[in-house]
Amino acid sequence: MSEPATSAPPPLRKIIHIDMDAFFASVEQRDNPELRGRPVAVGGGSARGVVAAASYEARAFGVRSAMPSVTARRRCPQLVFVKPRFEVYKAVSRQIHAIFRRYTDLIEPLSLDEAYLDVTEDRRGVGSATGIAQLIREQIRSETHLTASAGVSYNKFLAKIASDQNKPDGICVVRPEQGAAFVAALPARRFYGVGPRTAEKMSRLGIHTGADLRTCDLDFLQQHFGKSADYLYRASRGEDHRPVKPDRVRKSIGAERTYGEDLLTEETLRPALDAIASTVWERVEKHGSRGRTVTLKVKFNDFQQITRARSLEQPVGDRDSLAAIGQDLLSGELPVARGVRLLGLTVSSLIAANTVADPAASHVAEPAPQQGKLPF
Predict the structure, then answer these.
(1) pLDDT single digits (tens) 205-260
(2) Edge-first strand listing for the sheet containing 51-54
(3) Using CA atoms, how far apart are residues 40 and 78, in angstroms rounded to an integer?
(4) How far apart are CA 309 and CA 13, in angstroms?
(5) Backbone φ, ψ for residue 105 (5° rounding)
(6) Could you say which residues bind Mg(2+) here (predicted)?
């Protein structure tokens, strides 16, 4: 049986994953009492709109984020659509992160509403990682009038899975001696990165749970799941040695727009893409980065989607260069046979502006966790 290369395991970590409950929708319900208890969707309510977030009342009808608005309204005729207020969500997110910083500087944000925290160091003398998670949840409720769920475990994989276990407004703790049994009982679809297609493939192979996955050797997993094999092998054993990275590098900067009417001609597509390029470049400048890869995204009126990318030897230097590359990528798709409902442009392979792309120079040393300093 083939196994991945092994090395000395890292010191035992105490990781918390905090995930706000239906964050965007909950903020809207908090700020507008008339929305409380009602099914709410944040996003465009037009025929071309998409749900950005859904309240738990809406989720009961099967409404989910990224769902077309027409589908959401069909599932829940009484659904209330609210326009997103991202500046408000960002402000609340800053409040929440200020609470995190009372307990640790090792914070890895995943989005506005979730983050990993390494609390191996008990700098406030709380006494346990579970106690810290409880205090954080209590202070979030007290100071923002919102609820958060938490997962507490010895690695990031388990902490993230655990935070979803008792949602909403819950906590789940998976201690080192419980990890293997916890993972064994998980449905295979709960593993990070296992989408509907992969879950269906696993089912055909007789893999339904973490226990089933653990019986598969590495060769079998590589044959059927390629690059995901090592991750699946380790995760099925409750292993994940990734540290919390407080200086998590942003991987891409982009923008996209969904149009109320299909774009059918070159005369409508080119100016639309040019406007998106301007938005992306504003964000690139604000972030202080440059990127070497430009990706064009096109979604057609039948919801099929394509991407086209180009990587350069040097980072894109200005807005006009970005726009020109985007237009060149678009040229390869013209004329379009179907109406275009969405265009997007993304810059990736990012480095800091005015710096040399030296991987060694960009490495940030992380404090080594100290084993056993804080109990669960």
Answers:
(1) 999 999 999 999 999 999 999 989 999 999 999 999 999 988 666 788 999 998 88
(2) 51-54, 40-43, 80-82
(3) 9
(4) 39
(5) -95, -10
(6) 19, 113
Q: Pseudo-torsion of CA 150, 365, 251, 284, nearest 10°? A: 110
What one-letter code names the amino acid at 28?
E
Which domains are present in the chain?
A: 15-19+97-137+148-178 (3.30.70.270), 23-86 (3.40.1170.60), 180-235 (1.10.150.20), 252-354 (3.30.1490.100)
Q: Which helix (H) or strand (E) holds 15?
A: strand 15-20
Q: Which residue has the tokens 């890869």?
A: 293
Measured between alpha carbons, how far is 19 from 40 in angstroms, rounded to an integer?
19
Which residues lie closer than 8 Å to 61 by C-beta, 6 or more apart? 39, 75, 76, 79
113 has binding-site annotation:
yes
Mean pLDDT over the full length of the chain: 88
Distance CA 90, CA 218 (A): 42
Phi then psi dihedrals of residue 195, to 5 deg: -85, -175
| CA atoms of 278 and 337, how far apart (whole Å) | 27
Chain segment 98-138, per-residue pLDDT in tens: 999 999 999 998 888 999 999 999 989 999 999 999 999 99
Centre a 10 Å sphere on the Cβ of residue 133 and count the other Cβ atoms it contains.
Answer: 29
Strands 171-173 and 148-153: parallel
20 in the Ramachandran plot: left (φ > 0), alpha (ψ -120 to 50) or beta?
Answer: beta
Cis peptide before 335 (omega within 30 of 0): yes
Instruction: Return the structure tokens found at 192.
Output: 């990070």
Q: Is 121 exposed, middle or buried (0-12, 13-18, 19+ CB in 10 A)?
A: middle
Q: Give the global pTM.
A: 0.70
Residue 19 marked ligand-binding: yes
| DSSP three-state, residue 197 | helix
**Do 82 and 72 contact (CB within 8 A), yes or no?**
no
Which positions are annotated as active-site residues? 114
